[in-house]
Design a protein that fits this description.
The complex is a heterodimer of chains A (111) and B (114). Chain A is mostly beta strands and 111 residues long. Chain A is built from no helices and eleven strands. In chain A, the strands form two sheets. In chain A, strands 2, 4, 5, 9, 10 and 11 form a six-stranded mixed sheet that branches. In chain A, a hairpin with an 8-residue loop joins β9 and β10. The model of chain A has no long low-confidence stretch (mean pLDDT 89). Chain B is an all-beta fold and 114 residues long. Chain B has no helices and eleven strands. In chain B, strands 2, 4, 5, 6, 9, 10 and 11 form a seven-stranded mixed sheet that branches. The chains are: A mainly beta (111), B mainly beta (114).
């Protein structure tokens, strides 16, 4: 089942913060976050494993609430380079490792 | 550069035709995944191969098939093409036996069916 991302789109000014949410109706083993610029490949940002881990990557961090099967991506002090579509991909375990992606959140950072 | 190579970058063909998309995974990665991305559907998982064997199947049409060769490169074959098959096709690869299993994506093949 496809995870649900919210919001669908967000517009920020440089320096502002944003939160992107990803929720699933299935029990999750891991959540993977990617950013994709228009016409380019999705680029891996970070992975959250079950256990409620919070990972950070410079000014981008994420959390995973195992009880609620929800993950949130936090972007602080946004930069122009953060613009793009953010996807969460979820894995429910098992041996196939396939990811099911949400429909994405379009983030636009303006000067 | 993710280390995953896809060819060709662009492909323009006509309805009813057949095309082959090629993917070379990162060095050492045994798993290859194929995804289709169209405007209204987002990233749709098609199929996964692991060390030459099919491991998982997603929403892959019967007109589509894939294989992974002994040198670990993979090909996605699309036949009897329809206008709706126009999309970006991505290949990703990951290492095996690792809990985190991070998938790294190639630059994609943009298919236009006219």
């Amino acid at each position: 089942q496809q995870p649900v991302q919210s919001p669908q789109a967000v517009i920020l000014r440089e320096g502002e913060d944003a939160v992107i949410n990803c929720s699933s109706s299935k029990a999750l083993y891991s959540v993977h976050w990617y950013r994709q610029k228009h016409g380019e490949a999705p680029v891996f940002l970070m992975i959250l494993l079950k256990g409620g881990e919070q990972k950070g990557h410079e000014k981008i961090s994420a959390s995973f609430n195992e009880k609620k099967q929800q993950s949130s991506l936090y972007l602080t002090a946004s930069q122009l380079s953060y613009s793009g579509t953010y996807f969460c991909g979820t894995r429910s375990g098992g041996s196939n490792y396939k990811l099911t992606f949400g429909k994405g959140t379009l983030l636009t950072v303006n000067p | 550069d993710s280390g995953v190579t896809q060819t060709p970058k662009h492909l323009i063909t006509a309805t009813g035709q057949r095309v082959t998309l090629r993917c070379s995974p990162r060095s050492g990665d045994l798993s290859v995944y194929w995804y289709q991305q169209s405007l209204d559907q987002g990233l749709q998982f098609l199929i996964q191969y692991y060390n030459g064997e099919e491991r998982a199947k997603g929403n892959i049409l019967e007109r589509f098939s894939a294989q992974q060769f002994p040198d670990l490169h993979s090909e996605l074959n699309l036949s009897s093409l329809e206008l709706g098959d126009s999309a970006l096709y991505f290949c990703a690869s990951s290492a095996s036996g690792v809990a985190k299993n991070i998938q790294y994506f190639g630059a994609g093949t943009r298919l236009s069916v006219l």
